[in-house]
Amino acid sequence: VQLQASGGGLVQPGGSLRLSCAASGVIFRISTMGWYRQAPGKQRDLVAVITERGITNYAESVKGRFTISRDNAKNTVYLQMNSLKPEDTAVYYCQLQNSNYWGQGTQVTVSS
After folding, report:
1. Is 30 in a helix, a strand, or coil?
2. Ranges of the chain whose pLDDT falls below 50
3. How many helices (H) and strands (E) does the chain have?
4. Backbone phi, psi, residue 47, to 5°
5. Are the C-beta atoms of 14 and 112 separated by less than 8 Å?
6. CA–CA dist 88, 70 (Å, integer)
7. At 13, is the secondary structure helix, strand, or coil?
8. Of the candidates 47, 4, 46, 51, which has an alpha carbon nearest to the alpha carbon of residue 30?
9. What is the pLDDT of residue 61?
10. Of 75, 77, 86, 102, whose CA–CA distance to 18 is shortest?
11. Cα(84)–Cα(14) distance, integer angstroms
12. What is the pLDDT at residue 104?
C-alpha cells in the first residue's frame, strides 16, 4: 500500500488549499480514508474522515471550513481547506483507516 499526499504550501490567513492523497495497492472504493495533522510539539490529531459510502466526519475546529471528498475512479481522497487560520499550520497526513498505512505528510503553513 502506498499513499502519496500533495498540495501543501504557504498561504495567507483566509486563503484556501486543496490537499490530495493518491492511494495504490488497496481496494480504494471500499476503504475509509482520513486526514490528520500534527503541529510542532503537539500530537497528531484527526481532521476529517470519509467512509466508502461517502459519510464524512470532521474535527470541531475545522467544521464549516474543510471538506473531505473522494474520487474512487482516481483512487484519491481530497481535503479542501478554506478560510485557513494560522492555527491550521501543521503537517497533514492521509491515512488508510484501521491500518498502519500513512502518507508521507505535506506541510501547510498559514501566515501573513
Report:
1. helix
2. none
3. 0, 10
4. -105, -50
5. no
6. 21
7. coil
8. 51
9. 97
10. 77
11. 5
12. 92
Query: What is the pairing mode between strands 33-38 and 44-50?
Result: antiparallel
pLDDT at 32: 95
Quick check: helix, strand or coil at residue 86? helix
Q: What is the pLDDT of residue 30?
A: 84
Give 23's strand partners.
3
**CB-based contact 23:96 (threshold 8 Å):** yes
Look up residue 11 and give its amino acid.
V
Q: What is the pLDDT of residue 28?
A: 84
Q: Name which of 81, 100, 101 is nearest 90 in CA terms.
A: 81
For 80-98, how does the pLDDT look when each residue is reduced to its tens digit (9 = 90+)?
A: 999 999 999 999 999 999 8
CB 69 within 8 A of CB 81: no
Per the rule left: phi > 0, alpha: psi between -120 and 50, beta: everything else, 69 is beta
In whole angstroms, give the CA distance from residue 100 to residue 108.
23
Place of cell 470519509: 50
pLDDT at residue 26, rounded to an integer: 85
Q: Considering only CA atoms, give the Rg of the chain.
A: 13
